[in-house]
Structure formats: C-alpha cells, structure tokens
C-alpha cells in the first residue's frame, strides 16, 4: 500500500479493512518520512506495532 492511501484510510469515517501479514489491523497513525504506519490488531488495542506501509494490504 502507498502512503497516500494510508492517509485516506486514516481520515476516512468508513471502516476500511486493512491487513498486515494476513491479520486484520487498525491504522493508528503514520510517519510519512519513514514510510511506516503504527497499527494494532483488531481486538488487541494494547499491542501496537510500527510497520512498513508497503507490508499493509487493503481488503
């Protein structure tokens, strides 16, 4: 996924399904300069990870 799509998803009021290595995640934020996103697995808000945006996929 590219950083522009990440921005659209974060600002959207819709529930857009995004996956990280096959697991459904919420995008909490992004770092455009480093091309990373902060995500947490759905249902596990306390487990946040910083991942490359290229490893995120939209369903």
TrEMBL record:
GO biological process entries: asexual sporulation; sporulation resulting in formation of a cellular spore
CC terms in the record's Gene Ontology section: endospore-forming forespore
InterPro entries: SASP_SspH
Keyword field: Sporulation
Source superkingdom: Bacteria
Primary location group: other
Subcellular location(s) of the protein: Spore core
Annotated signal sequence range: none
Family classification: Belongs to the SspH family.
HAMAP family named among the record's database cross-references: SspH
The name this protein goes by in its record: H-type small acid-soluble spore protein
Record organism: Anoxybacillus flavithermus
Organism classification: Bacteria, Bacillati, Bacillota, Bacilli, Bacillales
